[in-house]
Amino acid sequence: MPYFGDSGLMGIPTGEVMEHGIVDLGTNFAFLNKAGLPREEAAIRLDFGLFDRVEFGLVSVRLNQKAFLMANLKLLLIRETGTVPNIAVGIENIGDEIVEELMDSLRYKRKSAFFAISKTFNLPRVHQISGHIGIGGNRFSEDLGNGNVLKGVFIGISKEFRPSFARGELTLHLETDGRGVNLGMQHTAKSGLRVNLGAEALDAPTTDVKEIRYIAGVSWSNRAIMRQINEAKRLAKQAGKLAAEAKSAVKEARVETVNE
Hints:
alpha+beta; 2 helices; 12 strands; about 15% helix
């Protein structure tokens, strides 16, 4: 289960996938809500997009003094156009027997399949805000916290801000994944560097004892570089077109001069 994935929210998947050629590399740490904020786990993930339809990721998790390697896969079925939302299917925590040792941490139930829908809305005053809803099995359908009510359904919203003081983009995530309500925030610099912060209330609000975990991490995506490359290609193509038009105009002017 990757935290703050490129196309996901803090802890739930969405109906979006990464664009072709986009790579996202990051690390996240989880801290328990105890004195000194002891670290519970650490993870390194690598995600990349293929053909604007497929997203594949690898996650290395270190928990209980052991390291585990898992994979995630997502496929875009329908792309958002007009009133039609993004729709995707996928599976998380693909691994072999070694992943069974993570069963004491229910977040890593293996082969957790899901179906997700995402839609961006343009609302008065709020402007653009994205809504996400989906349903899944295994880690998404746990019988604790809100899971007793949601039965595998997960819901989230995300909102992007571009305040001048941030020198980049701020994104807020609010979600529930059956284990509780999670709140996350991302800051994305123009270089593609991201700083991720979040709080995960595992059992809230349906129990009196709230196992809150704090998530912190950094990641980097080549999306900004790819945009610059594509913009340079566009400008080069436009310059070539203008040069051809200028050359053609000069040639026509010479012909008219000769004819006179």
